[in-house]
Amino acid sequence: MRLRRLAFKSTPRTIMHRIITLMMITIMTSIVTTTIITITTTPMLMTTSDRVLVDDRREMRDGEAAALYRLMTWLSPAFPVGGFSYSSGIEWAVEAGDIADAGTLRDWLAAMLVDGAGLSDGIFLAHAHRAVETGDDAGLREVAELAAAFVPSRERQLETSAQGRAFIDIARSAWTCVGLEQAIAAAGATIVYPVAVGLVSAAHGIPLAPTLHAFLHALISNWISAGGRLIPLGQTDCQRVLASLEAVVAATAQRAVAATLDDIGSATFRADLASLRHEAQYTRLFRS
Q: For residues 125 and 212, what is the distance between their CA atoms, to the nearest angstrom?
């Protein structure tokens, strides 16, 4: 009875005040609920400088999984092309004092990537890949012949041709596919390493961009491994050098994709001299 009397005695102003209060409570509740739902369903952010949204529920398509699997296999240090036995002249550079620590190794390799063998090999790989992809046998032969001639020394010729031949032989034996034999025949007798990688990856339908990045990563990793053994460096220092060259590798890959065969050139004269002088060293651990 008391509650009824109080309610009955309520003034219009009091009733209006209560209605506004209830409306505000309802609106605030709706806002909080919406915020909670939004936070719950927002994909996680990667802790990288790019802050890329990632949906970890997305599965790789069959083609993507196959491409990743094959690139990781072909360009792994365990793939038997003999890359561990070559230093690309780094052995002489260490003996001459040009490379003495992690910092000088990093600078030497950055120059080789940007202005030397790294960029040139990337361009050859890109053009070989496109030629196979489009069925341009004449263009593939031209790229293969130019790449075989574009080496500064006998030892570098041995290095790139021996690895290319090994890569092709293993692909034929364990990773054959439709069109591979035709592409190999079109390339000619001498298939150097970057051309071999571009040829095989294109025959397997693996896109150019990931192939090029994987190849350059493998190339720089092998150079760092040689430098680490020669200086010597610890594993952590080697990883620091590799991490510091990530952006350089990405930039080199972008240049290689956009370059024509007329853009090929080299300005790493000291590295070329190192590969020439290596064969006259008194003691050697590497073949180049």
A: 7
| Shared-domain flag, residues 54 and 70 | no
Instruction: Give the three-state DSSP class for 45.
Output: strand
Does any domain span residue 38?
yes
CA angle 234, 90, 193 (to 5 degrees): 105
Overall domain count for the chain: 2
Question: How far apart (Å, rounded) are the C-alpha atoms in residues 117 and 103?
Answer: 20
- For residue 247, the domain's CATH number is 1.10.4190.10
The overall pTM is greater than 0.85: no
With a cut of 60, say whether residue 155 has pLDDT above it. Answer: yes
State the Cα–Cα distance between residues 55 and 78, nearest whole angstrom: 32
- Tell which residue, 202, 200, 204, has the closest CA to residue 163: 200
Coil, helix or strand at residue 86: coil
Burial 82-111 (b: 16+ CB within 10 A, else e): ebeebbbbbbbbbbeebbeebebbbebbbb
pLDDT of 160-169, one tens digit each?
Answer: 999 999 999 9
Question: Range of 14's domain?
Answer: 1-58
